[in-house]
C-alpha cells in the first residue's frame, strides 16, 4: 500500500465501554468502521448520548478504546507510548472541544499559542504564528482580549484558532457552531470549507441538519452505532478515493 492510499482516519471495529462489568456500564460505541480521507469534510449527527463525543475523543487520541483499532494516518495508535502519542496528537490533530476550554486568565493570543509548546518555538515566533492564526479566524483585532471580554462566537473562534496553530491535517470539532447565532455559525462553516479545500480533513459533530448539509459525508449515530447517510455527497460508499499527495506530505 502506498502512502497515497492510506486514509488519514481509519477505525476497525472500534468500541468503547465505560465502567465495564459494573452496574454503571455504558456501551457508548459499537464496532465503528470508518475510513476518512484527506480533504474529506465529514459531519457526525445523532441524539444526545449516542456516542458522538466518545468517538471524537478516540479519534483525537484523548481516550483509549475498549476494543478494535484506530489507525491515524496509517499508524496504529495502540502501538505508541505516551510520548509518541503526544507528538502524534500535536502534529496531526487539532481539537475543538464541546465547551470552549479556553484558559480564562490568558489573552486570546496566549490561548492560541498554547499548543506550540514553550520549548520548541521561540517566543517571538509563537506570538507571530498565534497572531496570524487569529487573523485567519477574523480576530486579529482581539488578540489581547481575555475570554471573558469576547463574545461566545469569538471565544469559539479562538478555540478553533488554537486547534489550527500547528497546521494539523485533521481538525476535529465537537459542536463548534452549537452556541452560535446563524451568521457566526456560517462564518465558521466557511472557515472549515477553506480548510477542506486546503486538503485538511474536517470532522464536525453537530445537532443541526443545516450545518451537516455543508459536509461531503454525513454519519448518524444511534446508541453507539454509526451509519453513513446513503446517497449523500460523492463518497457515500465509504471508499476512500486514491488521492494525489501534495508536495511536502509525509507518506
Ligand atoms: N466518562 C464517562 N463515563 C461513563 N459514561 C460516560 C462517560 N462519557 C460518556 N458516557 C456515556 O456514554 C454515552 C455516550 O456519551 P457521549 O458523550 O459520547 O454522547 P454524545 O453523543 O456526545 O452526546 P451529546 O450530544 O449530549 O454531547 C452516554 O450515555 C454517556 O452518559
Ligand atoms: Mg457530546
Automatic annotation (TrEMBL):
<feature type="domain" description="ABC transporter">
    <location>
        <begin position="9"/>
        <end position="248"/>
    </location>
</feature>
<feature type="region of interest" description="Disordered">
    <location>
        <begin position="227"/>
        <end position="251"/>
    </location>
</feature>
<dbReference type="InterPro" id="IPR015854">
    <property type="entry name" value="ABC_transpr_LolD-like"/>
</dbReference>
<keyword id="KW-0813">Transport</keyword>
<dbReference type="InterPro" id="IPR017871">
    <property type="entry name" value="ABC_transporter-like_CS"/>
</dbReference>
<dbReference type="GO" id="GO:0005524">
    <property type="term" value="F:ATP binding"/>
</dbReference>
<dbReference type="InterPro" id="IPR017911">
    <property type="entry name" value="MacB-like_ATP-bd"/>
</dbReference>
<keyword id="KW-0547">Nucleotide-binding</keyword>
<dbReference type="InterPro" id="IPR003439">
    <property type="entry name" value="ABC_transporter-like_ATP-bd"/>
</dbReference>
<dbReference type="InterPro" id="IPR003593">
    <property type="entry name" value="AAA+_ATPase"/>
</dbReference>
<protein>
    <submittedName>
        <fullName>ABC transporter ATP-binding protein</fullName>
    </submittedName>
</protein>
<dbReference type="Pfam" id="PF00005">
    <property type="entry name" value="ABC_tran"/>
</dbReference>
<dbReference type="InterPro" id="IPR027417">
    <property type="entry name" value="P-loop_NTPase"/>
</dbReference>
<keyword id="KW-0067">ATP-binding</keyword>
